[in-house]
Specification:
Layout lengths: L2 H26 L4 H6 L4 E5 L6 E4 L4 E5 L4 H18 L2 H10 L2 H20 L2 H7 L7 H10 L3 H12 L4 E6 L4 E7 L14 H8 L3 E7 L3 E11 L2 E11 L3
Parallel strand pairs: 1-3
Antiparallel strand pairs: 2-3, 4-5, 4-8, 6-7, 7-8
Length: 246
Amino acid sequence: MTAAETRRLRATLEARVLERAAAFRERHAPLTPDRMAAGVGFRWRTAAIAGRDGLLDAASGTILVAEGQSPRRQRFTLAHEVMHRLIEQDGELLSDLHEAYEGAALERALERLCNLGAAEMLLPRAEVERALAAGPNPRLVWELAARFAVSEPAVAVALVGALGPGALAAVFGGDPLAVYFAFGTGAPARGTVLPAGHPLVAVRSAGLPHRGRLMLPGEVRVERAWARPRRGRVYLLATGVGAAGG
């Protein structure tokens, strides 16, 4: 399979996952946790899960969601596990997924597709694209989260999906400033600390927005970045993200 064919197949996979998620939302609305789980023939409950947000236990017909998290995060985790089940039930989609990826890349692709599908269930792509019509703005992360009663990470996933390849959404906080969460191309790992002189550190200290190029940890070059401070955090949306020199 050529690189172009692989890109087309991956785009097709994403489109089909979004279609499945949208159809599930329409069929089972309003998407309460009980209705989401029942939509794939499961129950759900919170539980102590070491190192994971959620777990789909097919043997008992139960979706386990990590306890101690916010209701919004638990709802996204539940939607993510529901997407795992929906993908498992689609033999053609699974076959194409295995054709496009293998090994660790397959696991990463599956997790990304489940995140995209979960975001689509809770925050329709059409609404995200409408919000982006005026251009990328980091304030969309908290505004859409409040409007649709979803977590900020769920909004970040939805924004990255709508912005397309080379997009990134992230939130930084703490002292020193570090990654709270990040999704998309070149996403730094949770907990990655930014150096003291980094432009995003200046965004928080000065309380002023940033727009333009910047570098992220791991020598990740960002051609177009929009960053805004809010309540001690820095919200970032970016496009044109890639490795330096790449």
